[in-house]
């Protein structure tokens, strides 16, 4: 006996099967699981409702074919299969809140059919195909849930914070249970749970955008600060490297200078040693010369006395000749002064130069050799009253002979 599968898709939740449409040479049977149930409808009357069992001879087979031919079977045999476990439905919505912003998402509804309420599904199959899945049931309930439950609840929601609160979910669940009790009861379902899951609202998107912009700004600031710190570290490292290079070069230069200075110092020490040796030598020679000069001094003194005596005689002999020569020289100088005065070239500078030469000439001639050193007497010019040195014959200021 072959098995009959009334549910080939997980989304199928109920199906109405006509037993007369099963025409096979082998009899068919169906295995009902704990969350599946079947209600038999024979000749328009609801029969037994079974679950968790194997139902044999639901259709097909040679014996049933012969019985139909003999008219010993029912004229209309139908089987209503349904899921008795919880069924989750998702209904999309888009509704406005109290502050004018819109919210969209999914309305989740969990319902369950009891075994004894399966015949109520005939109300659904009376106006639709004999197959009911989750999508069809959601479409069947969607308009009423949106109109009577979602829109009124969202209209009372003040803002996004209230929309996300547990109190709003609890209020929506209680409101849905009250408003949909009659509709679900007519379809044979029992209300279990209801809640909504909403997408991000406009306010949340705006808040997220602001948060993203703020985070991007802070990130950019942090990146800029990190970049500045890296630049500062690189700058400090570069400056330190340059400083180290300068110090190394300076140390090299200092080392070279030190080596050069040590070499020069060594040369100076060598030169000092040479000079010290020469100084010792010169001191020895000087001592020798001093000893020799001490011996010669006595001889020189004797010779000096002799020379002085001869000099006195010579000076006395040449005194008269010197006086005559000085008189002639004075005459010549007077004539030169008169010629310079006649030419207008007699200036104080010329007079001073003339008197210096005259004094020098007297010193050369030894005019004062025979006289004892005395303090020169000063005189004054008879014409202008200026001070005159001893021995001046002409005033250097006015040019008048004295």
Please outline the helices and strands.
Elements: E1 2-3, E2 12-18, E3 28-31, E4 36-42, E5 45-51, E6 54-59, H1 62-70, E7 77-83, E8 87-96, E9 102-113, H2 122-125, E10 131-133, H3 134-155, H4 160-163, H5 166-187, E11 189-198, H6 202-342, H7 348-365, E12 379-380, E13 387-388
Parallel strand pairs: 1-3
Antiparallel strand pairs: 2-7, 2-10, 3-6, 4-5, 4-7, 8-9, 9-11, 12-13
Helix pairs in contact: 3-5
Principal-axis shape equals rod-shaped
Report Rg.
74 Å
At the fold tier of CATH, the topology name of the domain at 87-114 and 131-199 is Tetrahydropterin Synthase, Chain A
Instruction: Estimate the mean pLDDT confidence.
Output: 80
CATH A-level architecture of the domain at 87-114 and 131-199: 2-Layer Sandwich
Percentage of residues in DSSP E strands: 15-25%
CATH class of the domain at 87-114 and 131-199: Alpha Beta
Q: Would you count the extended β strands for me? A: 13
Superfamily (CATH H level) name of the domain at 87-114 and 131-199: Band 7 domain
Please summarize the sheet with the most strands. Answer: 5 strands, antiparallel
Q: Give the neighbour order of strands across the main sheet.
A: 5-4-7-2-10
Q: Would you tell me the structural class of the helices and strands?
A: alpha+beta
The topology string of helices and strands comes to EEEEEEHEEEHEHHHEHHEE
